[in-house]
Structure formats: structure tokens, C-alpha cells
Automatic annotation (TrEMBL):
E.C. numbers: 2.6.1.52
Protein name: Phosphoserine aminotransferase
GO MF term set: O-phospho-L-serine:2-oxoglutarate aminotransferase activity; pyridoxal phosphate binding
Pfam families, A to Z: Aminotran_5
UniProt keyword list: Amino-acid biosynthesis, Aminotransferase, Cytoplasm, Pyridoxal phosphate, Pyridoxine biosynthesis, Serine biosynthesis, Transferase
Protein encoded by which gene: serC
Subunit structure, as described in the record: Homodimer.
Major place of residence: cytoplasm
Entry GO terms, CC: cytoplasm
Names of required cofactors: pyridoxal 5'-phosphate
Family classification: Belongs to the class-V pyridoxal-phosphate-dependent aminotransferase family. SerC subfamily.
Residues noted as binding L-glutamate in the record, renumbered to the chain: S9, R42
Length: 360
């Protein structure tokens, strides 16, 4: 068996070392004679896994004791509704910056729970850039300001934060753990696991403790309350135990490989190599404002659109998997998350150059 280079946007590639360790422990975790999938979530064994995952994530991201780490079900899309349901108690509006498909979906869900102020949007320019922060319409009486700093589909990424006293809520599903950030600047960070953390099935929330006081347990489903989740260590009901276990293995792998600082340099090098290949060619192009190009999701198109299906078929045959762009935008997209090795990007660039020589 030979593994391909998997450029899928999610569920995405996992580190091979993590998969091998999970395979070795699949039938018998640490001599207990059972798989993690078979353990009671209340057992000392699984509680130790959960505790380890939280501690590793705290170290990797520098998360202080001012925050709770929650493992929730329903993915980031479920949190689009869960966040306003929790954080808007006592407020009549929330602010959202619209920079692409996922931020647009988040604000659409929020409208079911509160009035939404669209503080800025780049929809009119097909989400190819980020709004000028000096022009943002931020209502300081709102519950929070929501941002999506990396848009998986469009390939836009920004890390500068607007000036506001509102808690900033950030959907970091696509770029969490890929670069260093100052967690203290955020009221809440959340992320679906299936890109940089682990398999689908769990989402992670990093919530400032003072915001938990907004959860109105009388008006919320029991499993939706952030305060209730924190009080019960994410185990109001049975959590996605195997997904949490694999997340812990990914966190361990990150620590063994230099942590977030080392991973950021690795990601910068991969992205620079791929963008250089695109920019040095008249055959390929990337539509995103150069200042806001994503390190994680690199969309590109061919000068001759009719060659796209040939490119995808030949790249797949060459062991470069899942390079088709999202169905809503077409073209190609290479998702080069933490687990993608430099060798994978080098193989893609070599293929792109060869394909251009043959078809230009």
C-alpha cells in the first residue's frame, strides 16, 4: 500500500505517525485490553485522555486559566447557532464580518437568534480580500464581533484584529494551531477538528470564563449551554471519545515536532513554494488579494478552463489527491494543513510545472 498526498480541505490528512500510533493502540489501549472506542467516558482511563488533550492544547496555544476548553458535538456549523444562543442573552444584536462562505453561513444562522449587524463585507468583490478595518461598522452595544480569519473555500486569511471593546469570536476551523496567536485577544475561539486537529466528530471551543455567565440555562437545550458544558467537563452526555483521543495524539505530535512556532515556519515555507509556482506562471493564477492569501487553503485556476478536468484526472493518477475546488467556486484548491509534509507540496509543484510544459 502506498499513501497519496491528500490535499482535501476536510476531513483532511492526519499525521502518519498519529495514524500508526492509533492503529497500534486500536485493540488494546495501554494494556487495558479494550479500545478507546469501547471505554466508558466516565472511566478513569478516558478522563485521563480528556485531561491530557486539554493540557496539551493549553500548552500549545498558551491558553490561560481565564478560559475553558470545551469539546462539543455538531461541528463548527452547529456552533453557528449555539454561539448566539449562548452569548446574546441580555443583548439584542451581534456584529459579523463577512469574508466568505463560512462567515456568511455563520451570520445567516445567527439571524435566527438575534439581529445581526454586518460590520463589513467583501461579497461585492467575490470575497477576494478583507474589508478595510477603518470602514467597519461595529456597534459597541452588541454581544460580540464574529470573524472567520481563514475562509477554507475562498482561500482568504487575515490575523489582524479590528479595534473594538467587544469580545471577538473567531471561527478558526481552518487555521487553528497553524500559526501563533494571542488567545487573550479573543473572547472565544472555536474550530471543527477535521482540518488541523483530528477526525470529524468533535469541535473545540476556547471560551473566556466571564462569557459563560451569559448562558441562560433555562432557555437553552441542556447540551447547548456553554456554562453547563464547562461545569460537566464536556460530558453532559457521551462525548465523541475516539475523536478526542485522536486529537490528543495530534497535540502530542505537535509538541514532539516543535509546537506551533515550528509548525508556523513549516507552513510559511510550504505556502511560499506553492504561491511562487502559481505567480511565476502565466498558466495558473490565484484570485486572492496577495496581502490576504491563506497559508492553509490555496485555490488556483488554469488559463484554459477546459483543461481543469484533465489536470484533476492526471494529478489524481500521480498520487495527488482531492485537488478539486469547492463545488461552489470550481477550479483547484490545495489544502496544505499542518499534516501535509513539504514533500507533498514539492510533488504538487513538480506536477504543475510538468503539466504546464505539456499543455501550455
Amino acid at each position: 500500500m502506498s499513501r497519496v498526498y491528500n490535499f482535501c480541505s476536510g476531513p483532511a490528512a492526519l499525521p502518519e505517525a498519529v495514524l500508526i500510533k492509533a492503529q497500534q493502540e486500536l485493540l488494546d489501549w495501554h494494556g487495558k485490553g479494550v479500545s478507546v472506542m469501547e471505554m466508558s467516558h466516565r472511566s478513569d482511563e478516558f478522563v485521563s485522555i480528556l485531561t491530557s488533550a486539554k493540557a496539551r492544547l493549553s500548552r500549545l496555544m498558551g491558553i490561560s486559566s481565564d478560559y475553558e476548553i470545551l469539546f462539543v458535538q455538531g461541528g463548527a456549523s452547529g456552533l453557528f447557532a449555539q454561539i448566539p444562543a449562548n452569548l446574546c442573552h441580555g443583548f439584542d444584536k451581534a456584529c459579523y464580518i463577512d469574508t466568505g462562505t463560512w462567515s456568511s453561513k455563520a451570520l445567516k444562522e445567527a439571524k435566527k437568534y438575534t439581529d445581526v449587524v454586518v460590520s463589513g463585507s467583501t461579497k461585492s468583490i467575490n470575497y477576494t480580500s478583507v474589508p478595510d478595518f477603518s470602514t467597519l461598522n461595529i456597534d459597541e452595544a452588541a454581544a460580540y464581533l464574529h470573524i472567520t480569519p481563514n475562509e477554507t473555500i475562498g482561500g482568504v486569511e487575515y490575523m489582524d484584529l479590528p479595534q473594538t471593546d467587544l469580545p471577538i469570536v473567531a471561527d478558526m476551523s481552518s487555521n487553528i494551531l497553524s500559526r501563533a496567536i494571542d488567545v487573550s485577544k479573543y473572547g472565544m475561539i472555536y474550530a471543527g477538528a477535521q482540518k488541523n486537529i483530528g477526525p470529524a466528530g468533535v469541535a473545540i471551543c476556547i471560551v473566556r470564563k466571564d462569557l459563560l455567565e451569559r448562558s441562560n440555562d433555562d432557555a437553552l437545550p441542556t447540551t447547548w449551554s456553554f456554562a453547563n458544558l464547562a461545569k460537566n467537563d464536556s460530558m453532559i452526555n457521551t462525548p465523541p471519545t475516539f475523536a478526542i483521543y485522536l486529537a490528543d495524539l495530534v497535540f502530542e505530535w505537535l509538541e514532539q515536532n516543535g509546537g506551533v512556532a515550528a509548525m508556523e515556519q513549516h507552513n510559511i515555507a510550504k505556502a511560499e513554494l506553492l504561491y511562487q509556482a502559481i505567480d511565476n506562471s502565466s498558466f495558473y493564477s490565484n484570485p486572492i488579494d496577495v496581502r490576504y492569501r491563506s497559508r492553509m487553503n490555496v485555490p488556483f485556476v488554469l488559463a484554459d478552463e477546459k483543461l481543469e478536468s484533465v489536470f484533476l484526472a492526471e494529478s489524481e493518477a500521480a498520487g495527488l489527491s482531492t485537488l478539486a475546488g469547492h463545488r461552489s467556486v470550481g477550479g483547484m484548491r490545495a489544502s496544505i494543513y499542518n499534516a501535509m509534509p513539504m514533500a507533498g507540496v514539492e510533488a504538487l509543484v513538480a506536477f504543475m510545472k510538468d503539466f504546464e510544459q505539456r499543455y501550455a
